[in-house]
Amino acid sequence: MLEFTLEDLSAADVARLRDIYEPLTASVRELVDATIRTEADAETVAAVKADIDAAVARLRSRQLDGAFGVRHTSSGESMSWGNAVIGIRNALAPPVEVHRDQTGRTSADFHLGAAYEGPPGHVHGGVSALILDHVLGEAASPDGKPRFTGSITLRYVRATPLGPLHAEAIRTRTEGVKTYCAGHISDAEGVTVEAEGVFITPRRLRD
Amino acid sequence: MLEFTLEDLSAADVARLRDIYEPLTASVRELVDATIRTEADAETVAAVKADIDAAVARLRSRQLDGAFGVRHTSSGESMSWGNAVIGIRNALAPPVEVHRDQTGRTSADFHLGAAYEGPPGHVHGGVSALILDHVLGEAASPDGKPRFTGSITLRYVRATPLGPLHAEAIRTRTEGVKTYCAGHISDAEGVTVEAEGVFITPRRLRD
Fold this sequence. Notes:
Two copies of one chain form a homodimer.
Chain A: H1 11-37, H2 42-60, E1 71-72, E2 78-79, E3 99-100, E4 106-112, H3 125-139, E5 148-156, E6 163-175, E7 178-187, E8 190-200
Antiparallel strand pairs in A: 1-2, 3-4, 4-6, 5-8, 6-7, 7-8
């Protein structure tokens, strides 16, 4: 059994834990996709369900009481491994891997498959909102301290096809506790969804 | 093997398919949660991963080429079973079951666990956007014909805790191809996120 205080994790510990859990999550993502798309017969589906239930029981034999939360390592690295957008242990997350360039611009390239569908063959409008909320929120937090969404507006330019996509955002200005950001999602043909948001510095991080 | 043209499905066929696939999806939702929360040792996790990979291979032995899409039964019922918010075959969907009352108001009661986390113990702001986009979109479509999000604005009143939640929306007015809707998410203490959106009648459904 792994015995650790997560807050005491070294970089090597984090790498070891990532090697344990990330491949499992990748397999569960495949399972989510296959569960939507399978046309296997009733007997096969029932047998698979029984195997999944057994797997769940083994994983739950030792588990956290609640959600994963956000942990910080001894080197100050943030582990949002349960996060719905970026969590490497969350099979709901594509996951989106957000990069930040020298200007503070955040961006991510990712792939959305069958599990993110709304209109046939296209990304659910709310999924675009989910991802843009996160990418704009990262742009609002260049110091690594979290800012929370105060408000966000999404404008849908055209339907976003399932497949390879790109998202990016910039911080446009800051006024006191409010940080303004703008961004978009695009496919190979150009922008499909635009976003503008106001992000709030939490009370505990204010001067 | 199931051999069918989905568009020819009777109500009994739909009920039979639901009985086959819905329990599998429920088990996969448990697996997603357990994958985030497990503290099982590396050997257990690796063994579970191997079992999941085998399950995926069995399900994929016969599957749809692409995403699920939206099917219509012989009685005109819409099957959005792959949908990211309401899909009963989509383990990413909580799922949200949207009801409509006589006034056209749409509402849903649902539970969000570890897989929907953003800030520790709280719902990711983008997940609230995802669900509100869908619940408002349903309010925009009282005739059962789809309307697509033109724009939507979310205002975050306070952080939404993980757990039992409620969402609802109403259509406020229609101007030509634009239908305006408003709604919110609430917990037992009151409203946490407000939304307003404009939904567009697709060209093929216009008079």
